[in-house]
């Protein structure tokens, strides 16, 4: 383990050099996930972007615990410490396993220090349920191809955003996709893609007139089904702020239709 840790630290040092666009955010070294330079947070070059850690946690749940008919319906991630640009390890523990439900707890550590925690509720899928008395009026989002790519205003490794400029019923809509894979040598998975993207609920709902002044401490994702393709759409649903605490929510889409919701709590930065 000491040798693996030293190897991972050496890789971090090498990863501090600039990398070409499109390179994966992490590589796996000795059982640890080693961030490359472009995995940095927009808040600090010394910290990892929280969305990427959420994606890693989802990937590990997918790899270790999901199987036939097992669907990750909810994922709540608490980002309770700044996550340094250092090798990260991930542990998962099954807290409850029944015939139709499983609860998995996921812990991310930097060295021996826990930096993030997720709880994932996994449900066994089956035939469609009965109709309900009320359903919302769904927004038919224009495809990202129709909107077209905007001029770049942010580093490419922060992903690509395509916004619907006009207000729709007082709401805003934005498409997001990653431009780099999460882990070197591994294709991104639907749950990992969705979990990483869900972190954008905070910037999409908390953005000010000229900058983002709030940083989220958590994100909760609910999904009725996993996404098809790389694009995740955010339909702004709610935002309320009192005493410096902001809570907000978005409906989530893929290019086929609605897939779930995401919510977060944030504080002024």
TrEMBL record:
Pfam families: 4HBT_3, 4HBT_3C. InterPro entries: ACOT8-like_C, Acyl-CoA_hotdog, HotDog_dom_sf, TesB_ACOT8-like_N. Residues 40-119 form the Acyl-CoA thioesterase-like N-terminal HotDog domain. Residues 152-258 form the Acyl-CoA thioesterase-like C-terminal domain. This is Thioesterase family protein. It comes from Rhodococcus ruber. The lineage of its organism: Bacteria, Bacillati, Actinomycetota, Actinomycetes, Mycobacteriales.
